[in-house]
Amino acid sequence: MAAVTLEDIVFTSIVTLLAGIQLTRFARKVGKSRMKHKVDYPKMIGDENFERVLRAQQNSLEFFPVFMISLWMSSLFFNQVVSAVVGLVYLYSRHLYVEGYSRSVKERLPGFKLGVRCIMALAAMAMIGFTTVLLRMYADIDLAVLFRTVVRRNLNVSI
């Protein structure tokens, strides 16, 4: 098995750093909302507008481990660039979610649904990657070679 180099993880690392910065931004939004709506520490309830901002931030924190695991596994076992692009779309979905939830409960849904789809895509890519590695290791089947052979045979093209 080949060693992982920095070049193999640079895009995933960038998305990871951006995700951390985004979570920091969400936390600051909660603090500003707390001051705006006069919700003293350590209270977690108060004005409905504050509670929506807080809930959006908490939900983002709850999804963060699942996103990170899916992002890194799909990057390492499937494709770094594709995984990083899906990761960026996920970060955009979180932005839509938090901004939408800050306005109303209903407006959170488009961002939430897009984010779940991104996590599902990352998890599926990771599973494809795991399967590819396991088949290569234990069954001596290389799916990439098999795929190229099937495509070449059916389309008479060279890949």
Automatic annotation (TrEMBL):
Q: Can you tell me where the transmembrane regions are? A: 69-93, 114-139
The organism's place on the tree of life at top rank:
Eukaryota
How does it sit in the bilayer? Multi-pass membrane protein
User: Where does it sit, as one GO cellular component term?
Assistant: endoplasmic reticulum membrane
InterPro entries named among the record's database cross-references: 5_LipOase_AP, MAPEG, MAPEG-like_dom_sf, Membr-assoc_MAPEG
The alphabetized UniProt keywords are: Endoplasmic reticulum, Leukotriene biosynthesis, Membrane, Transmembrane, Transmembrane helix
Tell me if Zinc-finger is a UniProt keyword of this record.
no
Q: What is this protein called?
A: Microsomal glutathione S-transferase 2
Q: Which PANTHER family match?
A: MICROSOMAL GLUTATHIONE S-TRANSFERASE (PTHR10250), MICROSOMAL GLUTATHIONE S-TRANSFERASE-RELATED (PTHR10250:SF15)
One of the GO BP terms on file: leukotriene biosynthetic process
Localized where? Answer: Endoplasmic reticulum membrane
